[in-house]
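ASSEMBLY PREDICTION REQUEST
Request ID: AP-0331
Submitted by: J.K., bench scientist
Number of chains: three
Total residues: 1038
Priority: normal
Notes: Please return the full assembly, not individual chains.
Input sequences:
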Amino acid sequence: MEFINDIFGNLIMGFGVALSLENVLYCFVGCLLGTLVGVLPGIGPVAAIALLLPTTFALPPVGAMIMLAGIYYGASYGGSTTAVLVNLPGESSSVVTCLDGHAMAKNGRAGHALAISAIGSFFAGTVCTLVIAFMAPPLAEVALKFGAPEYFSLMTFGLIASAVLARGSLMKALGMIVVGLLFGIIGTDVNSGMSRFTFGLPGLSDGIGFVVIAMAFFGLGEIIKNLETPNDQRQIFTDKVSGLMPRWVDVKDSAGAIVRGTLIGGGFGILPGTGPIVAAFASYAVEKKVARDNSQFGKGDIRGVAGPESANNAAAQTAFIPTLTLGIPGSGTMALMLGALMIQGIAPGPQVMTARPDLFWGLIASMWVGNLMLVILNLPLIGMWVQLLKVPYRMLFPAILLFMCIGTYSLNNSIQDPLLMAFFGIVGYAFMKFGCEPAPMLLGFILGPLMEENLRRALLISRGDPTVFFTRPISLAFLILAALSLLIVVLPAVRKKRDEAFQGDDGG
Amino acid sequence: MGAFKFRSYHQDFWAGLMFLGLGILAVYLSKDYPLGRAMRMGPGYFPTYLGYLMITVGAIVGARSFFTEPTDEERTTKWALVPLALMPASVAMFAILIDTMGLVIAVASMLLLANASVKNFRPVELIGNFIVLLAIAYFVFQRGLGVPFHTFWEESFGKAVGELLHLIATPVRLMFGS
Amino acid sequence: MDQPRLRAIAPRGAAAAACGLAAALVAALMAPAMPARAQAPAKGAATATAADERAWPSRPLRMIVASAPGGPSDLIARLVGPQLTDASGQPVVIDHRSGANGMIAGELTAKSEPDGHTFLLANAGFVINSVLYSKVPYDPIREFTPISLAVSVPNILVVHPGVQAKTVADLVALAKAKPGTLAVASAGSGSSGHLALALFQQLSGTEMIHVPFKGGGPALADVMGGQTQAIFSISVTSFPIIKAGRVRPLAVTSLKRLAAFPDLPTVSESGFKGYEVTGWFGFVAPVKTPRSVVQRLNAAVVQSVRMPELQERLGNQGAELIGSTPEAFGAYLKSEQAKWAKVIRQAGIKAD
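STATUS: Completed
Returned structure:
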């Protein structure tokens, strides 16, 4: 009981810090800046935070962290907005949002998609803020239990589950996963330090950036496809825009998805590196499986937005756990946050919680304030975003193109990334024309290198003993889950049902 | 199930071909990487076997096109060759020009190329779009977010142009004996 | 603008005029296609005149950083940047060029105009790359002029608390009792932690498993979780974790004990005399940068390194703030290169 009281005391102190006028202001400015920059096509959250980081240097440490957290939420939400409006995922977890979110936008329901995403994110954010407050240290211990075998099994599960994402042929989805795995190999092999598939280009030695591939396959490919129809007949977005705010039935439909997404996201979020993306894909797969009628998935089902968006926001939240309690950044964005802490003269690490309780609890409280602010800020903005879709496409597409150029350029301040994007845009269009979907490819692209790395690392540490994958309980659990998913996808009886669900898209 | 027949209008035929090609490329490129053993994999193990897997998948997907008639969705459709050439070209144009010629020229060239795909050329609209986008690129990205663009050409390029003009002028001046 | 070099190309006579026009045409065709930076070295000789020296700094300074935002390089860049601004009166633009282990940043700096407006914040990889990789697009000694070694960051050898070793000698004994079982993590192949391990194995005659990670954070987390047993982790990253008791420090890899951690012995005094592996961050400029400009940059760096802010942010975390002379830094770079060439050859570490 005393433990609970302590935490409430701390939370009250935290809110005292977060709700001071200046900190609320920092939080608001952060959310606003983050949203505005994050919504620019081509600028994902990592880029947005990196670019906005210097604006926080002049602030006191607590204010700086609060503003950065605001930027982080704003940028993540802004990224989802771009995914829905123009089909451009700014970060890995928005890939899933593109699937149904953009389909909804085309059906004139962009407002609904954006609103449900804001509502889902707020719910997920609220729950996960409490999770962090009450359970951060023990959850951090769980994260530490994940060694190479666990990560490998998790990736295996993630990849197999992603086959469920496919709308069309299962075999082609599998093919696209392998394509992604192959693209992921480009770069320096972590285990041996050897460059693979780099064609002697030094710029490829770090691999191809996710943003480059995602922009190419989703953004560029989509633009070319949209330009297939001549001007006068082209209508990408329907004129019939149904209201901005979701109908009650939408909220009712999505409630389950939001709760499940929050649980899934909160769980995966504590795992450094892969949390949000696996969470978003897993949530989508789960929604598609539990839905009684899943025929609309991929064509604009609101549950396909609500679930993954809640999941990725929940994961974005719990990703703070290893960062704050251990000082180990789980992602590029978290590394930037830690860098900002160090610039403020605070050594990130386990002692932050005890040495700077005002900072720690103030940040946690401001997470919730930030989430609230995001809803307040974004619900009115939705109307504005949706108006953007009324700009004639002949004027919209050059703008998107330019933002993608600048966005990819700014990743490394290098012209190589836009050039690569141009090349992969052609490849992406070809795959699209042959009925191959990009989403499974992107998952393979992200998980593939991690899977290989951890498989080889696990075998290295165990000195070639493959039983480690089965003797360690967490690893075994994921492998069993993977096997079950495989059964669901492959078993002929289930397979038949699956084909019905796809309305016979797949004749084979 | 259709009869065994070559169907180039079946998407799966081409998808299979692409998978097959990528698989062969992967196996070929991996030939110099140490393979290792399953329990002690070298850097070549994963790419090589992924390549074989890709070939297998490609063969299966491609084979399907020989046995089944495509559904409407699986039928190949016409490629939009003009945008397919122009969109990547305009991105590449931006990339090639941005470091040397600066933002203004890069954005203008990019927009011109991208707009070439649009029928009914509207100059006023294009110029308006150019001004708005340039303003965003300059104020938001270059000034606001600190992306290191040159507004116009790089100083050294400006010097190069100066030298070039000088060079061109020299023989003329010499001829007229000034 | 007087250009004797160019005028020489077009001597008197009509025939030569045609030549000149042809040359102009060729130049005109080449100019847009060829990045200006590729032409810079040739032009450098002509432009680095006395007039330019006096003009320094005539425009914003560009500090190229060899890593992505968020790491220790970024931290140092952002802390030193404002000090350089104060000292030079020109804003400092921090230009992150991560990629290829810093080789992209190195190449870019080597080929930029040597007028003192562009310089590189290099790290240990700057020199290590030159002996680790078969193809390196720059020569760290011949193509650069050293400015100053700013910060030196030793590694700390830490073990998971469950490992039965309280000292370096314990660890060696443990490794010898069961050769090839201790798993030692590192931030990556060719990282300073990897080389520290390689040298340690060579000197102690032990055999351990090297487990590379992608970055120091995940590697340290793996040791905290007990999946791997030990790591040579850079002091700035491991300090807070050590203080929280999550890992046990055995020794520091610098020659002298750390001022911030006087109880911790060095590896050198634990029976491996002369053992020293430190990561570092220092400033270098393209080789033809005028001497006087290098001196002024050096003064600015030295001054900024002495600021109490840096001491507080880095010194207390186990980093050593140095601010050496260009000559001393040059000698250091050469000795580092020779040392790592030997270790890398002996250990058979390769990267292509």
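REVIEWER COMMENTS: Chain C has 14 helices and ten strands.
SIGN-OFF: pending second reviewer
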